[in-house]
Design brief:
Number of strands: 5
Helix content: 55-70%
CATH architecture of one domain: 3-Layer(aba) Sandwich
Number of helices: 14
Structural class: alpha/beta
Order of helices and strands: EHEHEHEEHHHHHHHHHHH
Radius of gyration: 26 Å
CATH topology of one domain: Glutaredoxin
Oligomer: single chain
Shape: elongated
Strand content: 5-15%
Amino acid sequence: MINVTIENFETEVVAASAQVPVLVDFWAPWCGPCKVIGPVLEKVELEYAGRFKLVKIDSDAQPELSQAFGIRSIPTCVLLVNGKPVDGFMGAQSEAQIKAFLDKHVPSAEALEAESEAEDAQALIDAGDPQAALHKLHSALTVNPGNDDARYDYVKLLIEHDMLDDAEAALAPALAEIPRQIRFEALNQFLASIQFVMADERGTWTMEQFDALIAANKRDFDTRLAKARVLMVGGDWTASMDELLEIIMRDKAWNDALPRKTYVAILELLTPPKPKVDPLASGKTAGGIEIAGKAAAVLDPQAQLVATYRRKLSMALN
């Protein structure tokens, strides 16, 4: 438990809530119910062992913070995630009620363990040890099969190391979900293209062989799609999308819109990961208090490429 003032609010609440949910307890020394709920909150914080952070704000001593959150009675507890309030409650609550409230928002111990495994896996990938990373990601999914980030990284790594049967099996639960996440559909299309290249004789063709047939018949969509898949598997993403775009512009619905689905998959695979949320970047705290410093937008060439090809697809479809 930490006592928060206007001086340390940004660090102890706003910035901290980007790492772990922060429960803010607004109280005052004269408040009887505050004295009842305070020890209960501290006990629960210890039991949850780092799954959330408890801070206390004296409403009388910190009226600016109290006003910023619109506090009208105490005790009032507000839960912040990524710098924004997501839920709260007023009045003294029992230990069971507080735990029920927290369990709606705070990650489980299993989820945290799985997340830690996934973070270790990324470090192993960066260090050039993909086999150890695969082991970590498999362990993360064993602990928490609902960890979509770990599943995505696991399937992607399996594909990259030609473990296609394992990748297909690991991908299956995500493909069974409704609605299906775009990123998993992207991996599915990538996997299908690899399997096509391995099984079809055109997987070994040169570009000249493809181009000769396409020059003879601009609407030879089957050859164009085969060429696009070979380019995709070979890592020539933009050339693959250019070929797919030629099909889409001529016939949007051909082959159950497979060219469009493949194109969208490439866009998803090329999209840079979103940066971690910086709750201080907006220039205001969750309570609307002005804070110094705003993050400058950085133009990412990869993101610009994706944006350009998204516009091309939009124009082809309209």
